[in-house]
Write the structure tokens for this entry.
Amino acid sequence: MSSLRLTPGFGLALLPGVALAHSPIKGLDNFYAGLLHPVFVPAHLLAVLALGIFFGQRGPKAVQMAIIAFLAATLLGLAATGIVKPADVELPLLLGAAVTGALVALDRQLPLPVCVALAVALGLMIGFDSAQPQLSGRAWLAALLGSGIAVYLLLLYAMVFADWFSRRNWQRIGLRVLGSWAAASSLLVLSLAFAA
């Protein structure tokens, strides 16, 4: 008899809550939730890490203009989230991450304007995809500030890592393997998105 009374309560406990793709993390301040946002969104993480390795392979001084362009485009994309209605750019971002990973795997020197164009495209998409539509005012600003700082740090760490490990030939091969993994992971997430 008591098991019959527990069954409806147990069934209600199994119902899922609200699922939002870019919701803040419960229990965290908005700034820290924004700081962790690029780490928890696979498209952001893959794109930033692949771009950082791509820049590091070439040497940060050689692509300094592209680095600045990426950071400016990311800030512009973050600012645009307050003006323009957010659109879903996850699939183009994953495609951009796959292309960047493939470029790392190929280890080919590209002209600086091509590097700048790639950096601007990825930066705009990452910034624009970091929208937190359920937040407003100071909470929204704090979350976007955290996301911007996290993107900058992820790019910086990946770039320094790749620059450090591009001094010997066998280390460059390891970077190319990482690029192929980034490309394969991006294509895998893309295929799962199309399968769903």
Notes: Confidence is low (pLDDT under 50) at residues 16-22. The longest helix spans residues 137-164. The chain has eight helices and no strands.
